[in-house]
Structure formats: C-alpha cells, structure tokens
Amino acid sequence: MPQQVNLSFTEYVFVGYGIVDEKRDDYKTTDVKGKLVILLAGQPDGFKTDKPADSRPFSRPTK
Questions:
Q1: Average pLDDT for residues 4-15, to the nearest whole number?
Q2: Can you give the pLDDT at residue 15?
Q3: What is the pTM (predicted TM-score) of this model?
Q4: Quick one: pLDDT at residue 20?
C-alpha cells in the first residue's frame, strides 16, 4: 500500500550543483538544516574530477 508523505517545507534553498570538493563548496554559505534543498542534476560543463562516478560529491540521478 502506498504511503503518504508530507513535504510541507516553509523554506527552500538553491545550491547550484551541490558540489563539495577541494576547490568548490556550493553549501559553504548556505544553511540547509530543516529546508528543502533544490539542486541541479549532473555537473557543470568543464567540471573535471579524478573520482569515480559513484563517489562524486555532486548530484546524480538515482535508480
């Protein structure tokens, strides 16, 4: 049986791609506690990392 979920957030924040690594932190100046976090899927053009896809700190589609 499907469960009902209440997503009634009064505040939301946008964090770009949500990247946190050695050179960039999209959350650095953002308080996300208790807020709905909106972010872009994927990665910005030209973003390079040596980390494998499953450990990258930015958003990715879920299965």
A1: 82
A2: 92
A3: 0.59
A4: 84
Torsional sign, CA 22, 53, 13, 3: negative
Backbone angles phi, psi at 40, to 5 degrees: -80, 140
* Gap between the Cα atoms of 8 and 4, Å rounded: 12
Q: Which residues contact 59 (CB under 8 A, 6 or more apart)?
A: 17, 18, 39, 40, 41, 42
Rounded CA-CA distance 34/44 in Å is: 27
**Residue 37 and residue 60 in contact, taking contact as beta carbons nearer than 8 Å:** no
Tokens of 9: 């957030």
